[in-house]
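so my prof wants the structure for this chain in the C-alpha cells format not the other one, which i didnt know existed until like an hour ago. anyway here's the sequence
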Amino acid sequence: MVRTSAPAQPAAATRNPPRGGIRWVLSAGLLLPVTFVMSMDRAAMTAAAPVIQQNLHFSVTQMSVILTAFWWAYALFQVPGGIITRRFGPRKALAVAGLWWSVFTFLTPYGLVFLGFVVIRVLLGIGQAADWPASVYTLHRWFPRREQSRGNSILLCGLYLGNVVGTPLVVWIIDAFGWRQVFHVFAVLGAILALTWWWFARDEPREHPRISRAEVDYIESGREDDQQQQKLSWRVFAGSLRFWAIGAQYAFLLLIQGFFATWLPTYLVQARGLSLSQMGFLGSLPWIAMLIGVFGIGALNDRVLRRWRPRVWLAAIGYLAAAGFLVLGALSADTTLMILFLCLSLGSVGTVQVQVWAACQDLGGKHSATVSGWTNLWGNLISAAGPLFTGILVGIGGDWVLAMLVLAVAGVLGAVCWFFVHPERPLDAKENA
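here's what i got, hopefully its the right format
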C-alpha cells in the first residue's frame, strides 16, 4: 500500500501516463456498472408502469405520483448526499447507498396499495441520492484534470445505457417471469455491486493496496487538490441574471427529457397501441439517439467549436429541434415516423446536455461547483415535478397531444434562456457584489 507523500514529478511524468491503471478499473469496471444498474432500477419502474397500473387499477394521476415520488426524494437529498460523501468518503457512502437502494428496489412489488408504493419510492430516492455525488467525487480524487472528461464520459455512459438496455431487458423479464421479478433481479445485482465496491474501492489512490507508485504520482501530479475557498453569500449569485438563466434552461431541458425517462413506455402502449414487446425495443431507440448526440457533439466541441458563440447557437438550435420533433412525433399517425421523430427529439436533447456542463464550468470559474450544484438542483426538481405535470395535462386534454405541445413550448423557452447565459464571461463575485 502506498502511504508516503509523493514527491513533485517532472513534466515528463505527466506526459507519459502509466498503461492501464487502477483508476480505469475503478471507473469502467465499477462506477459504470453501479450507475448502469441504478439507471435500470429506474427503468424497471418506468417500463413496468403500464402493467402495474393495469393490475392494481391505479389512475393516471396516481401512477404519476408513484413515478415522481422517487424524483422528489432524489432531488431533496442531493445536498445531504454530497455532505455525507465528503464526511465519510465515497467508499462508505456509495456502498451504504447501494445496499440501501437495493433493499427498497427488492421491496417495491410489496407496496400493494397506492400509499405503499409512494413510501417505498421515496425511500428508494433517498438511497440513490448519494450515488451521483459519490461517483463524481471519486473521479475528482482518482483522475488528473487532463483525464476527467473521459472519466465523466464513462459515468454518463452507464447512466444512459440503463435507458437503452433497461427497457427491453425489463420487458423480457416481465414476459418470462412476471413484473415482480424485475425488481428482485436488479436488487440482487445492486447489492452485489455495492459489496464489490466496498471491497475494491478506496477514497484516495495512495490508499489502494494494488496501485503502483507510478500511477499515484501520475494522478497526484495532475490533480487539483481541494483548497480552502472563500465563502460567498448566495446573494452574490442570486443577483446575476446569468446565474438564473443557466438554472432555468436546464429545468426546461429536463422537462422534455423527463417525458422520455418516465412516460414514454406508457405513451407507446396506451396512446399508440404497441404491445409490451414492441414498446421494449422501440422505447430504447430514442436513448440510443441521445448517446449518439452526446458523444458526437462532445467530439465536435473539442475539435471544431472552441468558441462559445457557435456553441450557444447550437444549444438553442438543439432545444428548438427537440421541441419541433416532439410535436411532429405527437402528430404522426405512422408508427415508424413517430419513432424517428422521437429519436431526433431526444438526440437533440443530448446535444444540449453536452453544452450545459461545459457552460457551468466556464461560467462559474473557480465557483463552478456552486453553479453546477445550482443547475443540477433545478434539473432534479423538475424531474420530480415534470412527470406529474405531464400526467395532469394528459388528464385535462384527454390525450397526449396537449401535453407534448406544452413540452415543446418549454423547448422554445429553453432556447431563449441560452442567450442570457453568456458562459464566455465567468461570473465575477466581486463585480456582482
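also thought this was worth mentioning. The two ends are 48 Å apart (CA to CA).
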